[in-house]
Model the fold of this input.
Amino acid sequence: MVTHQEAGRRGGLVTAAKRAAEGNTPRPKAEPRQCLCGCGNLTGGGTFRMGHDARFKSMLIKGVLNQEPVEALTTYTPDEAYDVLEERDWLKFLEKSRTVAQTPKPQRRREKEEMDAEHATATLATIQQMKDVARRLKDVGRYSGANKIEVTRSNCATLLSMTDEELIDWEAS
Done:
């Protein structure tokens, strides 16, 4: 019997031998083909080279938004580019791009900074609450040892609202 660790050291040979013994043959290697993005390179058998699907999607979206032809393996009109996006279930990315394109960049930057500031404020408030709970647990002897209470984001408000007697008797459920 070969352990999992030994099999890993052998580089999967055990797995291949096991597959062959069970009558399962390995999948044939896919034939390389032209990358669909239009770069001219061959893929490892898939539709795109790694990362080129994002490039292709970006080109199609720009073609639809700017109403310009898209150069890939073939030239796509804006309508054809839209059809390809729809066929590949990429319309959600087009809609997101339309939303972003309608909002001026300074406004988007300002909104992002506001969201980041709100997130930072909320995080600091949570950290302060957790510190307060830890301080109270130390005071009642439940911060460390066998009867320790673990402070989490989800139980923080509950623990803060308890009296000292309730903290001493509390059992996590």
